[in-house]
Amino acid sequence: MLSQQTIDIVKSTAPILETRGTEITTVFYKDLFAAHPELLNIFNHANQAKGRQQTALANTVYAAAVHIDNLAAIIPAVKQIGQKHVSLGIKPEHYPIVGEHLLGAIKEVLGDAATDDIINAWAEAYGVIANAFIGIEEEMYVSAESKEGGWRFFKDFTVVDKVKESDNITSFYLIPVDGEILPTYEPGQFITIRVSIPGEKYLFNRQYSLSKAADSETFRISVKKEDENNPEGKVSVHLHNNVNIGDTVELTAPAGEFVLDQEKTNPATFLSGGVGITPMISMFETIAKNQPSRPVSFIYSAHNENLHPFDKDIRTLIETMDDAKYVALYSESEDFISKDVLKEYARIDGDVYVCGPVGFMEVMINHLLELGYSTEQIHYEFFGPALQLELMEV
Question: Where is the Globin domain (predicted)?
Fold first, then answer.
């Protein structure tokens, strides 16, 4: 338990964390990697380069300060972050290292304003928060490895098939090298793939959604080739160009909380843009196999037809379902998912799952809110660190 004095001091720092949080976390990561470059084997270099990880951490630290007297309020966020950590192989021994450099960054950025009382209060608070993460993540590790075929940290997999789904998305089918059975997973979950790229000093990790319903045969990830972005595209370009059938990669066990609620029978709408289609395919196929009478809508946006994956798969699945609607729109033809499209195709009396670029999700979720959907009906996930969406007040 934190003392009231510690709580008061930490809460008093919330305003400055709101305004200077990203400055603090930028210094934190710079100092962390200077002292522990081996951690670059874990962190996503692209998110670092683009500032997304710094912003996400600043938001988390600020939320912790605001809710330090009621940490239960941030447990959902801790669980979401914990899923990412477990998928990357974060260990308890990493937390003291992070704490040391986070406190150092606060002191470096705030200077004389970071009094001993403030640093000591944050050290105490960080200990409590870190223990919450460690405890929740250990439960996740135990859950993952206790499943039949489950494991902890990374495991070798063989690429057994490689299929081009569109001009920029290719699927990789993967099986365990050790021949063990595959663990089941929730539709919408992701894995981390770890690769060594020739000429690069550190390992690279990327998280990709499992893009088909769970079965005992293979995992499938469907990767967009990000060849116009640097360093974002290093892993995707390597996978597309250099990883082939028979090659070995390392994977973590499935993780993630953006999943289809398979207990429900109410209508479901899957709303995605670009490569955001990948978790939706897993959810949609799961319903087609297990709940073919459940009302479903699949709404998708791509730049053009050549960049549209899984179109034939979706149409084939629809033929097996009692009440399924499907529409695909292409921005190159100036066809967009408008409120009128959502009004026609989305299921107002059910859950909506949204995934795609940040701007796409902002527009889609605001459209849904304006159409009368409740926040409880709308489920969404970012690819990468969680950022703030600009959503209308309801």
Answer: 1-138
